Amino acid sequence: MAREVTHEEQGPAILDESDMGDDDKIYVCQCGLSDSKPLCDGSHNATPDEADGVVYKYANDEAEGERREVGELDDGDE
């Protein structure tokens, strides 16, 4: 599973201790669907039924957005 995500930022995200959770850890979004980027907001919980090897696009890059398949991953072995 993979997701096509649109990024418009042109600089780094600066994180500090105020971004830490109650467990003194910082959780960075890896799914691309968080409304709190660069921090994780749990939006990845909308993705457990994504198939391996398929690339998905979510409308407006939102977990609640309509999901569609946009391609397949190429492992480069050919």
Automatic annotation (TrEMBL):
Residues 10-50 form the Iron-binding zinc finger CDGSH type domain. Residues 1-20 are annotated as: Disordered. It comes from the Archaea. Residues 1-10 have a biased composition (Basic and acidic residues). One of its GO terms (molecular function) is metal ion binding. GO terms for cellular component: cytoplasm. SMART domains: ZnF_CDGSH (SM00704). This is CDGSH iron-sulfur domain-containing protein. It comes from Halorubrum yunnanense. The lineage of its organism: Archaea, Methanobacteriati, Methanobacteriota, Stenosarchaea group, Halobacteria.
